[in-house]
Amino acid sequence: MKANLRMFIAIFMIATAMSQVTLFAQNDPKSMLQQLPKDFLIREQKASPQLQQLLVQQRKFIVDNKLGFNVSITSVSHLKLAEITGEKEIPVKDVMDIKKIMTNKVLSAELLELIKQMQLKICASSLSTYDARKDSLVPRIRLQKCGDCWAYSATGPLECSYIRVNRITSPSTIDCSEKQIVDCSGGGDCGGGFAYQAFNYLKTSHNKMMTEAQYPDNGVNGVCPSIIPGTKVELVDWGVIDPSGDISKIAPVDKIKEAICKYGPVACSMNATPLFQNFAGGGVFNETPSNYANPSSNHAVMLVGWDDTKQAWLMRNSWDVTWGDQGYCWIKYNTNNIGRRAAWVVAKKLPLIFKPTKIDINILKRYLIQ
Q1: Residue 311 · residue 233 · CB < 8 Å
Q2: To the nearest whole percent, how much of the chain has pLDDT over 70?
Q3: CA dihedral 213, 214, 215, 217 (to 10 degrees)
Q4: Coil, strand, or helix at residue 25?
């Protein structure tokens, strides 16, 4: 009995010591460097002295404020923040016009039926966690080439909805042209713009989306081309998630969850900072409490899930896989104004095309002979 007690005490003391070492490591800027994945370490060794010094300062800030994530040299660390964000403030008149439209919005019976067919059995806002990637709804990570994050934020949810509505089994095959949005929607350019204008362009024009291969993002503004025949991805409708219909607000957490389950991954905005620019994963991003009374934002992204144990959204960025956790980020609810301008979209369902098999043809032949 006493031997068992002594063993228990010894194990407890060892575990306590190990936890203290781990806690020390998490609060030590030098150990943060050692904990980085190999790819980040290699890039950091090649970084300029200015960037290396910035990371030292940022890690000290993370430790001092017990934020619990890491920073390093990402795919966008060498760029100015304005070059990789680009969301602009919506004119007050447009905010009021959108609010009026959304508060009087009535979904058609056809759209309601389509939404009903889209329902996912494993997704419910009451669940503590959900990840649309596990439902094979999310295409691969993108890399924006200029300040056109707004175009990527608009295109991403449309791609996800198209995959869901049409039961596409290989999400990686879906890759729409963000440059088409930049050059044709009137919503902005490489210097910034508005996702809602991209939605309005697609809905009112009934234009379908070309693929990235057909019209790639080359990082410069261009002239809207003719839509190549045979395009398929088309937006049917879109809406503001905040119950008030006010697109300038930060939507409530529960309403965003409901929208993700009902429509699929959603577009939204946030306030991106130099710390966010160098986010290298290793925890949940959390910097500045969201300002619900007077929010601002400069970057448009997509939310694909959540985890209540982390109290965080699973966010997909458009800064390539060498940023964050392979291009994704766990970002704390109610930080950096995440969830502002949250919007859902629905893609058009393609008509079923009957492709007769040999058996079908043989049956048809017998019927015609008779």
Answers
A1: no
A2: 87
A3: 0
A4: helix
What pLDDT does residue 61 have? Answer: 95
- Tokens coding 112: 């309601």
**Of 123, 146, 149, 190, which residue is the catalytic one?**
149
Given 278, 298, 317, 337, which residue is catalytic? Answer: 317
User: Which one from 70, 271, 278, 299 is the annotated catalytic residue?
Assistant: 299
Q: Beta strands 235-240 and 340-347: pairing type?
A: antiparallel
Distance from C-alpha of 341 to C-alpha of 196, rounded to nearest angstrom: 9
pLDDT at position 233 = 97
What's the mean pLDDT when you consider all of the chain? 89
Q: Where are the domains of the chain?
A: 2-80, 82-347
Question: In whole angstroms, what is the distance from residue 239 CA to residue 259 CA?
Answer: 10
Residue 317 falls in the annotated catalytic set: yes
Catalytic, 299? Answer yes
Burial of 141 (0-12, 13-18, 19+ CB in 10 A): middle
Say whether 332 sits in a helix, a strand or coil.
strand
What architecture (CATH level 2) is domain 82-347? Answer: Alpha-Beta Complex (3.90)
Instruction: Please confirm, yes or no, whether 78 is among the known catalytic residues.
Output: no
Asked if 71 contacts 51 with a C-beta cutoff of 8 angstroms, the reply is no
CA 33 to chain centre: 27
Question: Judging by beta carbons within 10 Å of its beta carbon (0-12, 13-18, 19+), is residue 166 exposed, middle or buried?
Answer: middle
**β-pair partners for 325:** 328
Q: For residue range 132-149, what is the model confidence (pLDDT) as tens digits?
A: 999 999 999 999 999 999
Whether pLDDT at 354 is above 80: no
d(CA 158, CA 314): 18
Rounded to two decimals, what is the model's pTM? 0.87
244 Cβ contact list (under 8 Å, min separation 6): 99, 103
Instruction: Name 131's bridge partners.
Output: 305
CA 217 distance to own-chain centroid: 18
Give the position of tokens 């991954």.
Answer: 265
CB 324 within 8 A of CB 278: no
